[in-house]
Design brief:
Layout lengths: L2 H9 E5 L3 H18 L23 E8 L4 E9 L11 H5 L17 E9 L6 H6 L8 H16 L5 H15 L4 E6 L1 H8 L6 E2 L4 E2 L3 E8 H11 L1 H7 L12 H10 L1
Parallel strand pairs: 4-5
Antiparallel strand pairs: 1-2, 2-3, 3-4, 5-8, 6-8, 7-8
Helix pairs in contact: 1-9, 8-9
């Protein structure tokens, strides 16, 4: 096991929010980040007098929290929006609020019960690596190539020993996906988050143009099996974190099975 995996367990704990008490923590973190820290227009704090940010997707979602062991504080959360058995035709948010190219991905053709959307990917301010990228969006055009190169070099160095928060949240998403037999991930995310995920081989495929939805976002899609197989071969240290050293991706023990699995997906 590498330093990345060992430091993940040394500093962080993934907690499934499976109780009313933990769900309240989820909603409070979302309120703090979206309404107070980032002040996104669609998340006006006055609309949440109880200081809990919730919506009508939470009732059929699975939620994960991330605890920072040195302080004991919860510092991040994400959710996996699942198929709603009470409303089988209910669209996922990415279907309702973004534009998708059917030639890149026809969401309606996917097995609905094996599809989930990753959303409310929220990290408290002092742990959020994307802050600097958001601040620099207005000047990135000056020297975009060198800026991207610098971020990649820094990320590559950091990743040898310290996992980024996005990777650990995705480890929680993987656990929930295995639990609910999810084989396809959707997300309407900011391109900056997809770039951050790509440092560990977790990049998603864009399936439509940028839209203004809680800021500039694009619709993305990826097969769970594809991304795990790719990470196993190309970003093995990050794969160890994501799958709990293979617990959530056991086919890694036989390389030929991986290749056959990829062919059959």
């Amino acid at each position: 096991m590498g330093d990345l995996y060992n430091n993940f367990h040394k500093y962080f704990e993934i907690v499934e929010a499976d109780s009313d008490e933990l769900l309240e923590i989820v909603y409070r973190i979302r309120y703090q980040v979206l309404c107070v820290e980032q002040r996104i227009p669609e998340f006006d704090a006055s609309l949440y007098p109880d200081k809990l940010e919730k919506d009508n997707y939470d009732s059929h979602s699975s939620h994960v929290l991330l605890r920072f062991r040195p302080s004991g504080d919860f510092i991040a959360t994400a959710r996996l929006i699942l198929f709603d058995p009470l409303q089988p035709e209910k669209p996922f948010p990415v279907e309702s609020y973004t534009q998708q190219d059917l030639e890149l991905c026809n969401i309606k053709a996917l097995p609905r019960q094996q599809v989930a959307e990753i959303s409310r990917f929220v990290v408290v301010s002092k742990f959020d690596r994307r802050k600097g990228e958001r601040r620099s969006q207005g000047i990135r055009k000056v020297d975009e190539n060198s800026a991207v190169s610098e971020r990649r070099e820094r990320s590559s160095t950091d990743r040898r020993s310290t996992p980024n928060i996005a990777l650990i949240l995705m480890a929680g998403i993987v656990r929930m996906s295995i639990k609910f037999n999810i084989k396809n991930w959707l997300s309407g995310m900011a391109p900056a988050l997809n770039r951050l995920l790509s440092y560990d081989g977790l990049h998603f495929k864009p399936i439509g143009p940028l839209v203004n939805y809680h800021g500039l976002r694009r619709p993305y899609y990826v097969k769970v099996g594809d991304v795990l197989n790719r990470m196993y071969k190309e970003h093995h240290d990050a794969w160890e974190v994501l799958t709990e050293f293979g617990k959530y991706h056991p086919i890694h023990f036989d390389e030929s099975k991986i290749l056959n699995h990829e062919d059959n997906i």
